Amino acid sequence: MSVVNIAIIGCGFVADFYMDTIRARTGVQVVRAFDIEPAHAARFSDYWKIPTVTDREAFFDGLQADVILNLTPPDEHYKVSRDCIERGFDVWSEKPLAMKIEDIESLRDLATEKGVSLGSAPCNHLSEALDAVRETIEAGSIGQPILTYAEMDDNFVGKSPYRTWKSVSGAPWPAEDEFEVGCTLEHAGYCLSWLIALFGSVTEVHAFSSLIAPGKPTLHKPEAPDYSVTSLRFENGMVARLTCGIVAPRDHVFRIFGQEGELTADDVWYYGTPISFRRWLKVRRRFMLSPFPVKVKSRKPAFPIPEGSVAQMDYVRGAIEMVEAKREGRPSRVPLDFCVHFNEVSLAIDASKSRTDVYHVKSRCTSIPPLQASPTVDQNRLGFFERRVVPLLARI
Fold first, then answer.
1. Are 258 and 266 in contact (CB under 8 A)?
2. Measured between alpha carbons, how far apart are the two ends of the chain, in Å?
3. Are strands 275-283 and 286-289 parallel, antiparallel or unpaired?
4. Alpha-helical runs (H) found in the chain
5. How do residues 130-170 score in pLDDT, each as one tens digit?
6. pTM, whole model, 2 decimals?
7. Distance of CA 32 to the CA centre of its chain
8. Where does residue 229 rank: exposed (0-12), middle (13-18), buried (19+ CB within 10 A)?
9. Counts of helices then strands in the chain (DSSP H, E)
10. Residue 22 class from Cβ within 10 Å (0-12 exposed, 13-18 middle, 19+ buried)?
């Protein structure tokens, strides 16, 4: 494959996470970056040694890029992406695609009209870990999956020393933006991308949210809720509970309950997260999950992820997948309908701060093919406890 040329709009905190994973690759380069704040542009350019401009027209003048990363604050996502699409550029946007569902639909229609690709973070459904989860389910290790619990709690941020948090280039964590947008729009997508990639389209959103620890700083808007809990109904019958919050201790566990057992992934933010499953057992009068989980082997992440990252994710994988799919003339694993769908669901959950009725999701999406077409190992195996101990107990 020829070199993938990337351009960046927005040189703030999250841009450094993308740069970390871009620099871990060969055949990928950032040709130009843009930020309207001269200090941000200078800091980013000095650290990463990338040409950076502070004028929009100078950024687009003669730009040769396969994809533009829209890493601006959430309120800017819609107009920045629209400007790029109207100029004929493929765009990868940080989440959400826009702050209104009608604006997401407008971007979708414009991208389709212009014949350009449009994708949205997060892309953690492209992780090797999710492939292993999918393979384990398809191997029948937990039987038919019927219920999922997805956790996205991230500590008591309001009491944390967040004013000291800086990225590797020195960008401060955007506290006011984070607290205005809220943990649901910032974090729900990481679980939704897994859920929708595994189980398909969501049809109903039953959500509740609340601001339970007020007093965090904002600039232009009131504080957003710092807790939300949602029940999701899927077209295939799956039901899921998704919790987002920045009050309870960090917990990113993803648990799928099937007719024959339970599968657990420790952390959806980690592309190589530990995965295990336990089966239901009948031991005399007792019905119980095996006390000894069976570990699932997954492939190592394809590209090195820098140590010390808060989230062990390959941030740029989705944008590169979008470019390579277009070059190879194949369907992308981050198709536009998938991105539109999980963004609509995210906004519907976020809307629970002002509405309590059931939201019926309008969009639908196609299935996402795995990174690797066939399982690498037979996951449908029993642990020592099931093979040796349970038969003995049954005879007592």
1. no
2. 63
3. antiparallel
4. 13-22, 38-48, 56-60, 77-86, 101-114, 128-138, 175-181, 183-199, 317-328, 336-350, 384, 390-395
5. 999 999 999 999 999 999 999 999 999 999 999 999 999 99
6. 0.91
7. 25
8. middle
9. 12, 16
10. buried
CB contact at 8 A, 271 and 277: no
Nearest residue to 372 (alpha-carbon basis) of 299, 290, 279, 263: 299
Q: Dump strand ranges (E) for 254-347.
A: 254-258, 261-265, 275-283, 286-289, 294-296
Q: 43, 12, 16, 48: which is closest to 32 by C-alpha?
A: 48
Instruction: Give CA–CA dist 81/87, Å, rounded.
Output: 10
Q: Residue type at 125?
A: H
Phi and psi angles of residue 101, each rounded to the nearest 5 degrees, phi first: -65, -40
Distance, in Å, from the CA atom of 230 to the CA atom of 186, rounded to the nearest integer, reads 15
Distance CA 342, CA 57 (A): 32
Q: For residue range 157-214, what is the model confidence (pLDDT) as tens digits?
A: 999 999 999 999 999 999 999 999 999 999 999 999 999 999 999 999 999 999 999 9
Report the percentage of the chain scoring pLDDT > 70: 91
> What are 243's two structure tokens?
């919790």
> How much is the pLDDT for 282?
86
What is the amino acid identity at position 386?
E
Distance CA 349, CA 353 (A): 8
Burial readout 80-99 (b: 16 or more C-beta within 10 A, e: otherwise): bbbbbbeeebbbbbbbbbbb
- Tens-digit pLDDT profile for residues 344-389: 999 999 999 887 889 999 999 988 887 765 444 454 555 655 665 5
